[in-house]
Amino acid sequence: MASVPLASEIQNHVFANEGAAAIRASTELGHHSANAANLTSDVVWRAFEVLPYLGPNLVTVRQLAAVVDNVAKNAIVPLADVVGAIKMNDFKPVDGAIDLRPLVDAQSQFAAAESALSAADRQLASINTSANVPEIRNGANELSASVTQASRSVGDVDRAVRLVPNMLGASGPRNYVLLFQNPAELRATGGIAGAVALLHTENGKIALAQQASSGDFPFYETPVLPLSDETRGLYGDITGQYIQDVNLTPDFPQSALLAREMWKRQFGVEADGVVSIDPVSLSYLLKATGPITLPTGDVMTSDNAVKLLLSDVYARYENPADQDKFFAAAAASVFSAVSSGNADPVELIKALAQAGSEHRVLVWSAHPEDQAVLADTTLAGGLPVSDATGTRFGVYLNDGTGAKMGMYLDTKVTLGQVTCRKDGRPNYGVTVTLTNTAPADAATSLSDYVTGAGVYGVAPGNVKTVVSVYGVPGMQNLGVTRDGAVVGYHPATDSSYPVSALSVELAPGESTVLEFGWLGERPDKSSLIAQMTPGINQNETRLVDSSCESALW
Fold first, then answer.
1. DSSP state of 92
2. CA separation (Å) from 287 to 290, 349, 352, 481?
């Protein structure tokens, strides 16, 4: 079992880009794994496998040794060689361009390693250790956990080395519509697109080709693309009529298609894809670039970026067009710092990874081969997919205030499960707690642009939010309670997902608790996970014990 800690050590070296250390550890692992495989495949070893008590342990050790040997030969050693040949600075832009050759050259190695690790993961899962002594059982579990983690990590890198060169124009020029989502006015995937741009990529070079604001797009009399009856029923035709509303739906691929079509109609360019980011993502990137001085003279840092872009700007500028210009200039400044090579490459990768894991960076590609790579990642922005690893609910928020009060909306989500029925079908509770944290005098202390001034029927200082919770296809919708009392709601279906939606309006300091109930289709003990609208602050999600005493079941 000496191979187990070595495998973890190599993985750490690989993803820390410590090439020499990875090669040394992989060489040692190769010796261990080869010796173990040779020993356990010996005819004498096989003969002892038929003995009671001892035999099952020897069988498991042989199986584990074979897995480790295959992983060492076909995954770990090749990866260590790749890491030894590639340096992080290779991915640092020079004159606005990234050298794509190292990524392209590494594609075959990462693909082979991903295949080997996936096969090993499946093989380890099939090994029965119930008859083994604790030492072997624990070693098998430790190895399995290590291989599973490595398989996921290498899978992510494999997708990246296949996707990034294409997106950066290795095989020809590309154009991408870039949406800057503003969570001060929430939309299901993050926030309204107040600022929009066109990115042009070619041979690793990234250029900000054109900038625009939402005001540059007209209100279309009919949706620019056909909308399903489900989308129209839940979010309205406006989803396809106004650039700021394309992401009322939580299905980012649909939002991207609409935004792409609007850009094409307005500017005549049919983009190769759509990318969205938000100000919180920019704050993460600023950890990599360091402080940036904006054209206005403001110094934007990772600590003040969110407040500057989502609060201070509204106090400083009354004209929405000026606000959009400020936001666009800030985004362009961060982009310039990154593309010019002024960012620490390690910190940049960490920033993008964090933003991606929080669904703050979303990507859709019009190229099927690229979209296929994106499909199973957090970047895709699709509806939550449940599988053996987790039962996934969607919790999505859309602003109903018609203003920028999202800065003051606090959201907490809890997930619970309990089995109360004889047939074993579980009940699920998704609880959403909303709090308006605005000051008591928000109606007068905040600008009309921030409060909405009551234009859309919401009292100044109040926050109105449309909450849509998606269950799992096949689940039965059991309704909604608010602060413990059953309330009316909008039951619907979206692409086979059962949905419960309702509007909530909160005065400053007011809080409310919504519980959405669901009945599972079959017995299930998998983990509970919530895919949520990313707010200004990272939303809090907790697991709780549910009770059979509920007004919903």
1. S
2. 6, 11, 11, 42
